[in-house]
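Render this sequence as a predicted structure.
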Amino acid sequence: MDSGGDEVKDSGDRDGACPRMLSKQLDQVGILCEKLCRIKNERLCYLSTVSVRRNEIDVLLLSEENVQLVKKTLPSFLAAVELFKQSHLAYLLNLQDEISIKRCQEQLNSVFTCKRLLSKRVG
């Protein structure tokens, strides 16, 4: 029967170490870390999608015969950039140290530069 409190769990060590305590509730720091990790992973997935779409268009641009395919593919690239931007902003709001904020902002700037250059190449 679960009493809702903490429970003792054997750590699996056989060297006589004390069993560890498992808490049913995460502390605030743990909750914030989990949230930041989830948002960061989501952002990385969107960044990966941006890269895949950009690479698809780069390959298509190697031949002038692919003009229509490029024009069909460009909106999915632009949509991926927009999704990345939204997830970037959510991630940025949760960052606290200046180094991470600066690195994150540089990555966003890089994506926007890529978007601008690719849009210019496509015409």
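Summary. The chain has three helices and two strands. Helices lie at 28-60, 67-92, 98-122.
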